[in-house]
Amino acid sequence: MPDTPSIPRRSILTGASAAFTTSLFTGRVRGANDRIAVGFIGLGAMGSGNLSYAMQVPEAQPVAVCDIYGPHLERAVSAAAKKGVQVKAVTDFRDIIADKSIDAICVSTPDHWHAYMTVEGCKAGKDVYVEKPACTYINEGKKMVQAARKYDRVVQAGTMQRSGGYFKKAAELVKSGILGEITFCHAFQTGLTKEAGFGDPGDTTPPADLNWDMWLGPAPKVPFNPNRWGVKTTTFPTFRYFWDYAGGAMTDWGVHLIDPLHQCFDEVMPLSVSAMGEKFYVKDNVQTPDTMLATFRYPKFLSSYESRTCNPLPMFGTTQGAATTIHGTEASLMVNRSGCWLIPNNPSKMEPQTWEKDKEMSQMNVPHWRNFMECIKSRKRPTSDIETCVRSSATCILANLSMRHKTWLDWDEKEWTVKQDAVKPALVEKYRAPWKLVV
Predict the structure, then answer these.
(1) CATH number for the domain including 111?
(2) pLDDT at residue 1 above 50?
């Protein structure tokens, strides 16, 4: 890709500085030996993982945990205690945000809470680690970036692959030009779901130790349904398959699979998006498709994404069920959490190269947390600065909107919206009173 320059892009908030100097509101300038007090909001599968990763980073000091489901809260307190860490347990996230002794928060809630808690955390002078996808509405993402810049906060998104060695190697190879001219990329995710899916449980009474109204928060008020809540013992929660709270596989796996492209190509957004999807096979009460295909037109290449949850056949003759591939005139590249593979078009001119089964390169989560802590002290932008995740999340949201509105969408980078007037309202958050997203 020798003739492809870095594509200039307009920051969502023009003129934002790239480095900060002090911790806002507290007035403290951090020393090298200071520990950073962290409060954790949401202690389900991802939140429990983040608590564990943070406890492996000496600079991080977990001091508080918050969840509106009693068993999750108890589990978090117990997990911390086993590591010799004593944490305060609360059931209202606002208690953590208001606590001036807490330096940073980790938001691992269902997706529809990410934006609100991130913005409120920034306004309270907290640095923030927020899980992906960054947002469920594109306008939410814009406000998250604005809040991070306005209040000079370090906001690290949970796209932890950027801290992994395989993904760093992929970006290095693409930017070196070794692949030649790149015109096509592909991201895929495969699996085999049972026809019954997650079942079709009826609406019922929420568990006694769950605050269902607070769980819903800014989302529409609806009766409790086990799949809408989605806490499972053997799988990740199923809330992600309901439009009120998330975006299905497209914003779940899709963000992880498309984000490497943005990492390799300097955070460029697609110029246009077209997508189709449907529930062809699965017979449950979740709303998002079991099969989806999206096409993204970037300035210098096309990219496709497929979510194939009714057939597990891997791609490219490998055993990899999910990966991102980049195809050039000289070679192709495939990357995922298991490795990075350079596949030359002409093996007589270029040696194939493989990076896999490398313990150091496979590490992602702990290095990502370490980077977050380092940037809180240095006030530099973190590896997954919130704007990078907002761009990757917005790309996936656009695909869902194209599918649901049955129309091609053109992206307006300057205004951070789509050019199709009929779809523009769908980019703006619709919060249930009394919740309001104000930067």
Answers:
(1) 3.40.50.720
(2) no
Q: Do 238 and 290 form a contact (C-beta atoms < 8 A)?
A: no
Please state the domain count of the chain.
Answer: 1
The token pair at 103 is 């330096």
Question: What letter would DSSP give residue 347?
Answer: T
pLDDT, tens digit (0-9, with 9 covering 90-100), for 279-335: 999 999 999 999 999 999 999 999 999 999 899 988 776 677 899 999 999 999 999
Give CA–CA dist 226/231, Å, rounded. Answer: 8
Residues of the domain holding 106:
36-161+365-384
CB 122 within 8 Å of CB 114: no
SS3 assignment, position 37? strand
**pTM score of the predicted model:** 0.93
**Which helix (H) or strand (E) covers residue 176, if one does?**
helix 165-176
Average predicted confidence (pLDDT) for the chain = 92
* Nearest residue to 241 (alpha-carbon basis) of 185, 299, 200: 200
- Does residue 291 sit within a domain? no
Q: Does residue 52 form part of some domain?
A: yes
Inside any domain, residue 221: no
User: pLDDT tens for residues 358-398?
Assistant: 999 999 999 999 999 999 999 999 999 999 999 999 999 99
Which of 404, 388, 396, 401 shows the shortest CA–CA distance to 303?
396
For 352-368, b/e burial (b = at least 16 CB within 10 A) is eeebeeeeebeebbbbb
Task: For residue 236, name the pLDDT band (cuts at 50, 70, 90).
Answer: confident
Burial 225-246 (b: 16+ CB within 10 A, else e): bbbbbbbeeeeebbbbbbebbb
Which spans in 282-364 are helix H? none
How far apart are alpha carbons 39 and 105 in whole angstroms? 5
* Residue 281 CB partners (closer than 8 Å, separation 6+): 193, 195, 290, 291, 310
Residue type for position 138 = I
In a domain, 228, yes or no: no
Beta carbons within 10 angstroms of residue 18's beta carbon: 9
Cα 225 from Cα 242, distance rounded (Å):
11
